[in-house]
Amino acid sequence: MDSYSKLLERVNAPGHFASSIGIVVTRIEGREAEGRMEIRPDSLNPMGIVHGGAMNTLADTVAGCAAFTSGHVCVTLDCSMQYLAPGTGRYLHCIATPKKLGKTILVYDTTLTNDRGQVVATGIYTFFAKSQPVEENTVF
User: Fold this and answer.
1) pLDDT in tens, 80-112
2) Is 4 helix (H, G, I), strand (E, B) or coil?
3) What CATH number is associated with residue 86?
4) Which of 18, 78, 97, 124 could pair with 61 in a Cys bridge, judged by C-beta atoms 3.0 to 4.6 Å apart?
């Protein structure tokens, strides 16, 4: 099993926050990652649309997986989300693509779309790549 498959297995395992709110990372390839979040009643705000925090969690989870392709343990330094349309439908999809890949600072663009392909949010996520390499026993 390659390291990307191991990362997918770990991040999608039950018992983690992201999986508990319906997030599944579906692809890690090259320096990108993709994932989706099932829209459930517990992911909605009082207005009946996906809570911004749930969208942020989806983007942070997917971008974090992309950042781990650096081979180092990465932690989020900063994030910014732009909410462009209500989160509605059956699921939201996220793709994270690299914007800057430095030795210790990695910046990713994220785009969230609904099940009709409409962009509902975008974000920028900055990660710090620690000198510690990703190993078998790394806790994600």
Assistant:
1) 999 999 999 999 999 999 999 999 999 999 999
2) helix
3) 3.10.129.10
4) 18
Q: Is residue 140 part of a domain?
A: no
Whether the full predicted model's pTM is greater than 0.85, yes or no, is yes
How many separate domains does the chain show? 1
| In contact, 106 and 100? CB cutoff 8 Å | yes
DSSP string for residues in 59-99: HHHHHHHHHGGGSEEEEEEEEEEEE-S---SSEEEEEEEEE
Phi-psi region of 117 (alpha: psi -120 to 50; beta: other; left: phi over 0): left
Q: Select the highest-mean-pLDDT range: 2-6, 11-15, 55-59, 69-73.
A: 55-59
- Domain annotation covers residue 123: yes
